[in-house]
Amino acid sequence: MSGLLQDVKIAVIGLGYVGLPLAVEFGKKYSTIGFDINQARVDELMAGNDSTLEVDSQALKQAKLLSYTTDVATLSSANVYIVTVPTPIDKHNQPDLSPLIGASKLLGGVIGKDDVVIFESTVYPGATEEDCIPVIETVSGLVYNKDFFAGYSPERINPGDKVNTLTKIKKVTSGSTPKIADFVDELYGSIISAGTHKATSIKVAEASKVIENVQRDVNIALINELHQIFDRLNINTKDVIDAAGTKWNFMKLMPGLVGGHCIGVDPYYLLHKSQTTGYVPDLMRQAREINNTMPSFVANNFLRTLLSKKINPVECNVLLMGFTFKENCPDIRNTKVLELYNELLMLGFNVDIYDNWADTEEAYEEYGIKLINSIEKDYDVGLLAVPHSQIVGDLNSKTINFNHGFVYDFKNALENKPS
């Protein structure tokens, strides 16, 4: 590769929440191929629609140099490959690198001499060069840092956030040689208006990404633990946070169900890597345990609250509001509301889930859960799990009502606190 940006032809592997915004921005300046194995996803993008709602139709039209494909053969015309596939965990909470290894095998079949592959997927330090690069070498027959090169630039997409978008968030970059590090930094710097930070190595860049979410996980776990203490003391957690938040350096977080594809997943990658070195990070592990038990706490606290209000929980019809992993976002990956729903069923409640953001077909295909997208019957009580703006507005305006006039609102999102 010449190192000149005008010679760049980019292929983005994976067109989800991370890959699509990236492909669109690059597609405004460089010849870019957006690749995904899901034909339905490619078809909707070619039609100018994004079901994740991360990129609107106007922005899709502005990426005039971007094309979409499921055809692997077309990728060989690129000379920069950016991998944005998911990095999930398995049922034992161990890193599942199969999407990343699959992408590496795919790249091994198309990568050419002097090409650069850049990984954005969140991993543990060392995964790029220890797990992915050897696969590319084996399949391609090329030698790393002689025939092809690598970079790592961790994604910082916040699903549903229309303020802190891709180009407005400073981007960490890195490369496998000083020259490639400069190239990767220049490439991203050409589309990221917030600027870049060139890390000293790929491992440093990998570590920087994973600890962003580890830090939030630990801090939210603290708030979730404090919430359980304050509940026993009959103190409103939001009132405490508002008071403490008057100090300039207090971090204002609220209790919550920690799901999604980042905070609820990424810490397990560092936990895994740490344990391979013989060190067990107790604080990180305990934070995960606290956050993972929140659905059970909420369900049982909901039951205790009903009993304290003399509301009979037997055959109680509950409207569980919100299913996505966070408010005002259609993303249902690793949603903890699923566990909350199951906990409520085990306690004997009759439960329907209402969410005006979630795709009902996707929820059924992924979890076997039938969501409702309109409220057609009466419910005894409500449980606000995910405070989507529309749902909060309807509750505040009494557009949604309940037979017992009670909504359990553990995040204190409503104007009138439960009495």
Characterization of this structure:
The chain has 419 residues and is of the alpha/beta class. It folds into two domains: 5-209, NAD(P)-binding Rossmann-like Domain (Rossmann fold), CATH 3.40.50.720; 237-408, Rossmann fold (3-Layer(aba) Sandwich), CATH 3.40.50.720. 39% of the residues lie in helices and 12% in strands. It has 14 helices and twelve strands. The protein has helices at residues 19-27, 39-46, 57-62, 98-108, 127-140, 178-189, 202-232, 237-244, 266-276, 282-292, 294-308, 337-346, 360-367, 389-396; strands spanning 9-13, 31-35, 66-69, 80-83, 116-119, 149-152, 171-173, 196-198, 317-321, 350-354, 381-384, 406-408. It has a six-stranded parallel β-sheet, sandwiched between helices. A four-stranded parallel β-sheet has the order 10-9-11-12, with helices on one face. A two-stranded parallel sheet has the order 7-8. It is globular and about 75 Å long. The chain starts with 8 loop residues before the first strand and ends in an 11-residue tail after the last strand. The mean pLDDT is 94.
